[in-house]
Design brief:
The protein contains 11 helices and 6 strands. It is an alpha+beta fold. Strands 1-2-5-3-4-6 form a 6-stranded antiparallel β-sheet. Helix 5 packs across helix 8 and helix 8 packs across helix 9. The longest helix has 19 residues. The protein is globular, with a radius of gyration of 18 Å.
Length: about 240
């Protein structure tokens, strides 16, 4: 049996958390860059998936249900005590971040959960206990700006709009995201292409590239190879 469930976070966590999800599937598609950090219960262990910058192959686990808290881009760094490059492409056991006693307590509760919904509540409570302050408002504003625009980001105008120097803006982004605004812009554009390709299977790649914000189809191809490890034509068949 395969399924995927998604829940909105409770109100107090909405600034940090985009959603909570549970999934059981035979698929073993690679994980692709999406700007998010996740706290994941695999059925056997609890770990943090950092913000990916490249595709990550995963194994097939048809007998397991995964449950995860998905953080908004830039909102996970303080919750886990990870900063800068520690966030990018990381896979970190929760004992390294919150201590072995906390890991054992949470994994015991998760293993005893009778449903994905119950496990999701355990994870939400754990995250809430480690939220000390709101996400960096500068990074939140940058993320919102990059989501809204489709043309490639120019750092100097973005820094002027935020009210920081380019160096300050880069430092704040790397601290909260694991990389700079240009990389996040590339990831958001790639995710726009994926969403468009899934919604409009009959559209040509050149049209999808233009609507997603790429300079041309060749630009789309280069970025898809970097971020998904395959051509756009092949990638769209998996959506």
């Amino acid at each position: 049996m395969t399924f995927r469930l998604v829940w909105a976070p409770p109100g107090p966590l909405a600034l940090h958390v985009a959603c909570v999800w549970a999934a059981r599937s035979r698929a073993a598609d690679p994980l692709l860059p999406d700007g998010a950090v996740e706290l994941v219960w695999s059925g056997r262990g609890l770990f943090v998936r950092g913000a990916d910058t490249r595709p990550h192959d995963v194994g097939a686990f048809p007998d397991r249900t995964f449950v995860a808290v998905r953080f908004r881009p830039g909102a996970a760094a303080d919750v886990f005590g990870l900063r800068g490059a520690e966030l990018a492409d990381a896979r970190v056991g929760i004992s390294q971040l919150w201590g072995r006693a906390e890991m054992e307590r949470l994994e015991s509760m998760l293993a005893a959960s009778r449903s994905p919904w119950e496990a999701a509540h355990v994870l939400q409570a754990a995250v809430a206990a480690h939220v000390a302050r709101p996400p960096d408002p500068v990074v939140s504003a940058i993320v919102a700006a990059l989501r809204a625009q489709h043309s490639p980001v120019r750092v100097a105008p973005l820094a002027d709009w935020i009210g920081l120097s380019e160096r300050q803006l880069l430092r704040r982004c790397v601290a909260s995201l694991g990389y700079g605004p240009k990389k996040l812009d590339r990831i958001f554009r790639f995710q726009r292409f994926r969403a468009l390709a899934a919604r409009h299977p009959g559209r040509g790649l050149a049209e999808l590239a233009a609507v997603a914000g790429y300079a041309d189809q060749s630009h789309l191809t280069r970025e898809c190879l970097r971020l998904a490890g395959e051509t756009p034509a092949l990638h769209r068949t998996r959506l």
